Amino acid sequence: MRIxxxxxxAVATPLVxxxxxxxxxxxxxxxxxxxxxxxxxxxxxxGMLYPLLHxxxxxxxxxxxxxxxxxxxxxxxxxxxxxxHAAIAEQRRQWEVVSDALNRVWDGRGSAxxxxxxxx
Length: 120
Fold this sequence. Notes:
three-stranded antiparallel β-sheet, 62% helix, alpha+beta, 5 helices
């Protein structure tokens, strides 16, 4: 299945913030975690992830520092800042509303006719 780029863009920020809420990480590991969480359905590129990480850093949601990989290469590590923790909480509340609305409409509970059928 191909997931449309509008939907991918919509979930990018809460997904990256959620991954960083699990703990500090770096670009390649974040890409791997996205793939793992989506069971391979979301395949992001560096060209999508790094501009997002830089934007989140500019917004103050993410802090970055340089570290050394086990192979000795320098790599940038990202972690949530205190305002990033607040942002993920707000993102979660918003996505719960969206998810609930979609579930209602897809389960047939989103219309007046469906409400009448539920009452019978």
